[in-house]
Amino acid sequence: xxxxxxxxxxxxxxxxxxxxxxxxxxxxxxxxxxxxxxxxxxxxxxxxxxxxxxxxxxxxxxxxxxxxxxxxxxxxxxxxxxxxxxxxxxxxxxxxxxxxxxxxxxxxxxxxxxxxxxxxxxxxxxxxxxxxxxxxxxxxxxxxxxxxxxxxxxxxxxxxxxxxxxxxxxxxxxxxx
Length: 177
Ligand SMILES: NC(=O)c1ccc[n+]([C@@H]2O[C@H](COP(=O)([O-])OP(=O)(O)OC[C@H]3O[C@@H](n4cnc5c(N)ncnc54)[C@H](O)[C@@H]3O)[C@@H](O)[C@H]2O)c1
Ligand SMILES: Cc1cc2c(cc1C)N(C[C@H](O)[C@H](O)[C@H](O)COP(=O)(O)O)c1[nH]c(=O)[nH]c(=O)c1N2
Known about the structure:
GO terms for molecular function: FMN binding; FMN reductase (NADH) activity; riboflavin reductase (NADPH) activity. Catalyzes the reduction of FMN to FMNH2 which is used to reduce pyrimidine by RutA via the Rut pathway. This protein has 4 helices and 12 strands. It is of the alpha+beta class and 177 residues long. The protein has a single domain (12-145), classed as Pnp Oxidase, Chain A, CATH 2.30.110. Strand 2 (21-25) and strand 3 (32-36) form a beta hairpin. The N and C termini lie far apart (42 Å).
């Protein structure tokens, strides 16, 4: 059997463009948040998404202890905020750079995010270094913003919906800034 090294795996995963999100939590175990690209939809019935969280993350204890998260989908203006939530700075400094509200669970909702998925964690699977969080979506917020922040090839990019048809996204490279 061929053994794939971590670096080869990461180099290949860097070819997989992904939306960038800030995943937040709040509750008895404290407020925390981290930048996450490992987020995807699982099923629409019941509405369920998954988030992969490194167990070494500073947010891990709060996320698992509170049992709630909000997935805040980032837009073109959020690159600096994404860098902050992906760095080692304290939680107060991270949250101080944004404006937050709440929906149903009390997890922080970013004021000007593209979409927010407020969730209760329903199942957790341990896989290697990460916990895979299966999350029931209990409330939603959706803006009319027509762009997304994307992480691809170890850099940030922006994808914008076309002016003519807001449901049609033009290719990433044509709109790269
Ligand atoms: N799923 C994750 O946990 C994840 C995803 C992206 C970035 N990151 C973090 O951001 C740093 C910078 O990432 P980069 O893309 O600029 O360069 P990188 O070479 O470290 O990572 C390349 C790609 O590999 C994957 N990856 C990286 N670390 C991972 C991990 N611990 N577990 C699972 N997949 C992982 C991601 O898809 C990432 O975009 C990483 O070192 C990591 O700490 C973590
Ligand atoms: C673009 C991008 C994407 C991700 C990350 C980073 C960046 C820059 N990070 C890492 C995570 O944000 C980072 O480890 C923490 O926020 C900083 O570490 P501490 O909070 O100090 O532990 C990350 N971590 C994680 O557990 N799951 C993920 O999906 C991602 N995705």
